[in-house]
Amino acid sequence: MSEKAKNSFDEHYDTIIIGSGAGGLAAAICLAREGQKVLVLEQHDVPGGWCHSFYLNGHRFTPGVHYVGLLGEGEATNDLYRGLGIANELVFFRMNPDAYEHVRVGDEHFDFPANFDQLIARLSERFPKEKKQINKYLNLIRKVSEELYSLPYIKGFWQKLTLPYRTRHFGKYGLFNVRRVINWHIKDPLLKNILNIQCGDHGVQPRKAAFVLHSALMYHYFQGGYYPMGGGGALIKAMTNAIKNHGGEVRTSTAVAKILLEGTTLKKAVGVQLENGSKLMADRIISNADVGITYNDLIGREHLSKKLQKKLQKTKYSCTSLMLFLTVDMDVRKAGLDSGNIWMMPNRDADDFYDEILSADIAEGIAFEGMFVSCTTLKDPASFDGKHHTIEAITFIDYQGFEKYKDEETQRSQEYLDFKEKLTVKMLNGLEKAVPGIRNHIVHQELGTPITNEYYINTTDGNVYGTEKSLKHIGPFAFRSKSEIENLYLCGASILSHGVAGASHSGVDTAATILGCHPDDLKKPQEDQALRIYEAEDPTDYPEWMLKKMEVKKARAAAKVKESAIS
User: Fold this and answer.
1) Treating both helix axes as pointing N-terminal to C-terminal, what angle do 131-150 and 116-126 enclose, rounded to 10 degrees?
2) 252 near 42, Cβ under 8 Å?
3) Beta bridge partners of 459
4) Where are the domains of the chain?
5) CATH for 3-93+229-315+469-523?
């Protein structure tokens, strides 16, 4: 065999996956485990997409992982990680079980406990006149979610014959938005805002958020939230290790310019062309990239059917965001923080508020009123160096304010930098309401913008959740994992579901489509795999290796401070 032929053979793969987000990596694990020659290509210099971690002055941040649900024994996400064979590499901390979500609506406060019955009891005590309806509404959410999760398991003639009865709640409310359903049950405006606060996990207002999707999200967190030790980067490391252990390959700093098509109608994917001009061939391609990027840029609209072109024209993408990354040298617990998230919004109609923030001139006003605040060093105690805490604060905005900067190269204009500085001040003004005095303790600060999202994650208009999570873009109206182009598949936030777990499940589902099996066959928990879960708020049961790790981290930080003082 000639050297040229040998190289050509070596560069041919069973499956090439574009993008190394959680969905792409989950698909890669499943396919490589089945013996396929798999290559994952990532444009960024580290894998992970939204789940990747990065460091600023030695302190770790993760832009897209803030909590994960259903990690208890026998629950869906736990089974997923055991099924993928990565559970043994992962350690999670359970966030404050008494308040994994701190809701601040104006001056009103409410804490979500990590227990369904306790949530009902706590809400009923706070809103006694709504007690009966609270119970009815939250049990409806649970029933709808359980029916949704049961759909893949309804098989056989007799089971399908009873499908309308088995999924009667799901069927009844499947085409309604959150606002409509909650208005049928709840009257108190404050209570509505509290129950709808997690619409922020969709990035859309209650009148746009699909009730079924929102029910599934609330159900996902009914037993609380968890955070990975080592941030999202630890999850990605476990996934990439699994891929490599099964003979797969992950290449970073390798951007794909286009998907190669062949045939008289150019309807068959055969490989990819990289930005450096080289070509890699494969029997099939999976795109974990944004659907707009996949179809409009990597394929080209001219190669798509009129039906798909029309769908793309009508597709709306989720909102974008500002993300403020802070390192502070203050006692954040004394300031009122713990391992729970903080959701802030003014005490007024949530739909009106979302409409305002997603259409307003973001330069106006002195503070952002709606924010999500997360202290990662309290969620992951092993990352705390004894002095510095890391905080991530997020607010949703419309992309239009950054449209003028989208074509700038890595060398940003002074106008853009000045605009960032102005928005950083506005973010800090909003954050001061949650953590008074924090401005006086900032060691380092950095603001991520929609342009940052586009540069590192390569999403359409810097969106954070893929397609807009409204009724028009989920379920039967979502993009399919198997595209109209032969041998081209998709996975990720715009296909099955968004979020860390949702995207991962999407990758498994796409792999199952390729392998011709049921997704559960690929997610069957492996008996030799087990997650290690500890309490973020209670170090009593921390193992010796973790305590030692924490001691070493604090000792190094103290030595560094001492060295700096001497010099």
Assistant:
1) 150
2) yes
3) none
4) 3-93+229-315+469-523, 115-220, 319-464, 541-566
5) 3.50.50.60
For the chain, the farthest-separated pair of C-alpha atoms sits apart, in whole angstroms, at: 82
Cβ proximity of 477 and 508 under 8 Å: no
- pLDDT by residue for the chain (567 residues), tens only, comes to 333 333 444 579 999 999 999 999 999 999 999 999 999 999 999 999 999 999 999 999 999 999 999 999 999 999 999 999 999 999 999 999 999 999 999 999 999 999 999 999 999 999 999 999 999 999 999 998 888 766 565 455 545 545 555 666 767 888 899 999 999 999 999 999 999 999 999 999 999 999 999 999 999 999 999 999 999 999 999 999 999 999 999 999 999 999 999 976 778 999 999 999 999 999 999 999 999 999 999 999 999 999 999 999 999 999 999 999 999 999 999 999 999 999 999 999 999 999 998 887 898 899 999 999 999 999 999 999 999 999 999 999 999 989 999 888 778 899 999 999 999 999 999 999 999 999 999 999 999 999 999 988 989 999 999 999 998 888 888 999 999 999 999 999 999 889 999 999 999 999 999 999 999 999 999 999 999 999 999 999 999 999 999 999 999 988 887 777 776
3-class secondary structure, 169: helix
